[in-house]
Specification:
N-(1-d-carboxylethyl)-l-norvaline Dehydrogenase, domain 2; 284 residues; six-stranded parallel beta sheet; three-stranded mixed beta sheet; binds NADP nicotinamide-adenine-dinucleotide phosphate
Length: 284
């Protein structure tokens, strides 16, 4: 796949560093983003620019997508100048967005009808892991298409694992993000409890990070809490969406119910801030 031309759709917090990683790895990359001003930084690092998803797929062999949600995916595939309107054959479309298993199955079927291939390949890890090519990529799709895509996926992540047919990658992602919701809420609740009993946040985080419960998430988000910096690396509205999707898929366990409720309640006020802004909701 190294000589193939790559297309990239979606230049949000994740799309920018991941597509840049592909450029660094030496792939010819063409990008498309709905808001055109975000394309400038990619153009400056050597990417081509396409006017629409249709134009992008016509010019490339493999198209990656990293956008917000199911609605965005529908627009990118089915819009007037969407991917399917190009009526191409033999292309591979790799959807890294966190979306429902249902939309992946639907888009995979539409791709197959045209003679194209689809992999759902959502990622675990945030901006830092994207910048370092250290994402964890969980894939749903056909094994031979996964094997063809694996060399390029391995430029982006430390693990690329096929977990089942189309939609299975999305299901695995909803499972790990449910755990992420628990971690964020749990960290916030522990810190708020300590604060209420006059234990310094720095001291509490020092204890957590040196204990068996210390992890990369607690370290990065703990630093953000101390700096009072809630600028989104992973927007709270996205974890609210993921818990909604998991609920729709039938997740109704005790912690999942509570996390669902907490993040839905926080979304209106803190949706555009980082996931760890949940601490502001908890401390109300
Ligand atoms: N950030 C993280 O840490 C992280 C980690 C793992 C997975 N994810 C998942 O990865 C996906 C992207 O996350 P992100 O943080 O990069 O999101 P983001 O910063 O909010 O960016 C969203 C991207 O989707 C595009 N988009 C939204 N609606 C669209 C539509 N209707 N048509 C076309 N494009 C549309 C946006 O285009 P505009 O620029 O025009 O708005 C933008 O490029 C989400 O599914 C998220 O859950 C995020």
């Amino acid at each position: 796949m190294s000589t193939k031309k790559i297309g990239w759709i979606g230049l949000g917090n994740m799309g920018i560093p991941i597509s840049q990683q592909l450029i660094k790895a030496g792939y010819p990359v063409t990008v498309y983003n709905r808001s055109k001003e975000k394309e400038a930084s990619l153009k400056a690092t050597g990417a081509g620019i396409a006017a629409s998803p249709k134009e992008l797929i016509q010019q490339t062999d493999v198209v990656f997508i990293m956008v917000s949600n199911d609605e965005a995916i529908s627009e990118i595939f089915n819009g007037d100048a969407g991917l399917l309107s190009a009526k191409t054959t033999g292309k591979t479309i790799i959807n890294m967005s966190t979306v429902s298993p249902g939309i992946s199955k639907e888009m995979a079927a539409l791709c197959k009808e045209q003679g194209n291939h689809y992999l759902d390949a959502p990622v675990s890890g945030s901006v830092k892991q994207a910048e370092e090519g250290q994402l964890v990529i969980m894939v749903g799709g056909e094994e031979n298409i996964f094997e063809q895509a694996k060399p390029v996926l391995e430029k982006l992540g430390k693990l690329a694992l096929l977990v089942g047919g189309n939609g299975a990658g999305n299901t695995a992602k909803l499972a790990i993000n449910t755990l992420l919701g628990f971690h964020a809420q749990g960290l916030a609740e522990a810190i708020v409890f300590a604060q209420q009993h006059h234990i310094k946040t720095e001291d509490m985080l020092n204890i957590i990070n040196n204990s068996a419960l210390g992890n990369v998430f607690a370290k990065i988000k703990g630093d953000a809490i101390i700096k009072d910096n809630y600028q989104a690396a992973f927007a709270l509205k996205h974890i609210a969406k993921d818990l909604r999707l998991a609920k729709t898929e039938g997740l109704n366990s005790p912690l999942a119910k509570v996390a669902y409720q907490t993040f839905q309640e926080a979304e209106a006020e803190y949706g555009n801030e980082d996931i760890i802004a949940i601490i502001k909701q908890i401390s109300k």
